[in-house]
């Protein structure tokens, strides 16, 4: 069937109507092939016309020229209990130039379930009038699977919600970033979100949706809280819900179960990305020995075409808990005790060894050589070898975060920053742009440091720095392994900061492949400086920069021996002793360049 051009009217509508259908079963879908090609071909839409409802329901839309090709459309009709028709409307405003056509219209799984002679299985339900035998998991799920409504009779209203009259006994979380919205019909943004609810299958029905347009930002979260339930042993409590995740920038929907009120809880289920323009049923089995609550969390993607819908949420075999969940204390036991120094005669320009009270020069603090017997002069410094295992950052810190005052978590939640990570904590698909294994252990359990590009915006930078290093030796170098894989990797730089002056020592940008790569940066003799790793975010979250196994090699400064230099050694102008083999080798081994003097 195709449309002929007719220029006799400015505004033209071509309408194709279906026969009148009496009803459909709960799994009914309609599919057809369409062709919409031409410079000014215009829009087309499929509408559902239900007896008794004045407002039509839009089921499908094509907005523009979709190329010289046949495309397939699949529409979820679901359970429609009243007579209805379908109307395919083609609208042309003024100038029409193109071809619109439709072919191969198919209805699938639209009949009610067939009657059964018996239904004795304990896991099935026998429908009262239609005599169909359906799975007992379909009972009291807000969907008329029997076709006579008997599977939805005598259900506890406290255990189900279709959002037709509000949120029922569900609540919006006050600790999240924004709220779920109750709505009818399509969401405000085209090409994302549902066109209709799941309960009625029409624009009259209500559902919840998560708006991903501005002012929402990437990884903002909306959390819905269930009522509290009694403990459920042997997976007897079952949670059913329908979700809709349609749009190019749909990000994530997660379900958590918690038994402590001020925690996020345990992850039960999650789904990433575009799942198509359809409502999808999910069933979760819950087993816990303590009272619990369910949290449904939607997370915003990297753009406005990321709306997520929820509808028809129900519990089976669960009972409500009349009480409150316990809380856990978030305060740290004990109070901090200020550091005390032993009796000493040290000046303000000297460092006091904590155990002995011995005085050393301040230049000897944080120089990769323990001069105090208790090593206290190296205790608040960067560790010489750091693999980040046991979640230890080895003295590296983020200056920008240290400067933030007030509530740390409130200020840092959605900013681009360095974090400890490991492969075991990644979501499916995240390994495409974040390491699945660390470099130290080569396992998913090993830890590394990474700049999380799921936060921040294009061009944002984040630094992680050492405390001030007092002095290094002539052969000092920093060796580290980096992982830069992903379609939108930014860059990684190694910087040296002395006072207010910062210089670039090493840089790498763009994707370097799905492996750990070794890098080496020469430092040599330096004093009172910091080493900084600076990550720069790319255009999207598909590119995390990671580092592991950071090592300072041969960085201890030279020692002035308490003896004359031997015949095999050269006496530097500053009285250091170095091997004669190091003379005139283009390396400042003496730290005063006397070993490279042309007068030797």
Automatic annotation (TrEMBL):
Disulfide bonds join 140-155, 366-381, 565-577, 572-590. InterPro entries: ConA-like_dom_sf (IPR013320), LDL_receptor-like_sf (IPR036055), LDLR_class-A_CS (IPR023415), LDrepeatLR_classA_rpt (IPR002172), MAM_dom (IPR000998), MAM_domain-containing (IPR051560). Gene3D superfamilies: 2.60.120.200, Low-density Lipoprotein Receptor (4.10.400.10). PROSITE patterns: LDLRA_1, LDLRA_2, MAM_2. CDD domains: LDLa, MAM. Residues 1-112, 159-320, 384-557 form the MAM domain. GO terms for cellular component: membrane. Keywords: Disulfide bond, Repeat. This is MALR1 protein. It comes from Mesembrinibis cayennensis.
């Amino acid at each position: 069937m195709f449309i002929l051009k007719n220029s006799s009217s400015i505004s033209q509508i071509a309408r194709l109507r279906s026969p009148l259908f009496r009803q459909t079963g709960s799994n009914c879908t309609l599919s057809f092939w369409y062709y919409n090609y031409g410079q000014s071909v215009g829009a087309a839409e499929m509408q559902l016309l239900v007896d008794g409802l004045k407002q039509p329901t839009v089921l499908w839309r094509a907005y523009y020229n979709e190329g010289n090709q046949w495309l397939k459309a699949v529409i979820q009709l679901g359970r429609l209990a009243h007579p209805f028709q379908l109307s395919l409307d083609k609208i042309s405003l003024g100038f029409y130039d193109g071809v619109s056509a439709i072919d191969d219209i198919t209805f699938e799984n639209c009949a009610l379930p067939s009657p059964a002679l018996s239904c004795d299985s304990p896991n099935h339900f026998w429908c009262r009038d239609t005599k169909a035998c359906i799975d007992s998991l379909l009972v009291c799920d807000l969907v008329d699977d029997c076709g006579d409504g008997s599977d939805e009779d005598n259900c506890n209203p406290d255990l189900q919600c279709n959002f037709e009259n509000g949120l029922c006994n569900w609540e919006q979380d006050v600790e999240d970033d924004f709220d779920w919205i109750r709505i009818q019909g399509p969401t405000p943004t085209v090409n994302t979100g549902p066109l209709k609810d799941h309960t009625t299958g029409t624009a009259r029905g209500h559902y919840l949706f998560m708006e991903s347009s501005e002012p929402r930002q990437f990884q903002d979260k909306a959390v819905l809280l269930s009522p509290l339930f009694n403990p459920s042993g042997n997976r007897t409590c079952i949670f059913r819900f329908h979700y809709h995740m349609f749009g190019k920038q749909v990000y994530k929907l997660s379900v958590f179960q918690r038994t402590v009120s001020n925690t996020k809880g345990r992850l039960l289920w999650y789904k990433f990305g575009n799942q198509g323009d359809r409502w999808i049923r999910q069933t979760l089995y819950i087993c816990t020995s303590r009272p619990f609550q369910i949290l449904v969390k939607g997370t915003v993607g990297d753009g406005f075409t990321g709306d997520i819908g929820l509808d028809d949420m129900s519990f089976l075999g669960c009972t409500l808990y009349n009480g409150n969940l316990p809380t856990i204390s978030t305060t740290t036991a004990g109070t901090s005790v200020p550091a005390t120094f032993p009796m000493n005669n040290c000046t303000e320009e000297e460092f006091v060894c904590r155990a002995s009270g011995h005085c050393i020069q301040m230049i000897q603090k944080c120089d990769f050589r323990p001069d105090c017997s208790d090593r206290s002069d190296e205790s608040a410094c960067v560790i010489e070898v750091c693999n980040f295992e046991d979640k230890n950052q080895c003295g590296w810190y983020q200056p920008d975060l240290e400067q933030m005052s007030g509530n740390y978590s409130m200020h840092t939640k959605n900013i681009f920053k360095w974090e400890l990570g490991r492969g075991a904590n990644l979501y499916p698909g995240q390994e495409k742009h974040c390491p699945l294994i660390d470099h130290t252990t080569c396992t998913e359990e090993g830890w590394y440091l990474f700049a999380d590009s799921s936060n921040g915006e294009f061009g944002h930078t984040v630094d992680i720095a050492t405390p001030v290093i007092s002095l290094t030796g002539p052969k000092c170098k920093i060796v580290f392994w980096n992982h830069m894989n992903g379609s939108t990797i930014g860059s990684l730089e190694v910087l040296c900061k002395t006072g207010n002056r910062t210089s670039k020592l090493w840089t790498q940008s763009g994707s370097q492949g799905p492996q750990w790569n070794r890098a080496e940066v020469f430092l040599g003799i330096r004093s009172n400086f910091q080493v900084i790793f600076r990550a720069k975010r790319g255009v999207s979250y598909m590119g995390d920069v990671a580092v592991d196994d950071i090592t300072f090699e041969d960085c201890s400064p030279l020692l002035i021996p308490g003896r004359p230099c031997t015949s095999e050694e050269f006496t530097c102008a500053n009285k250091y002793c170095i091997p004669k083999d190091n003379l005139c080798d283009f390396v400042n081994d003496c730290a005063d360049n006397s070993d490279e003097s042309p007068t030797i």
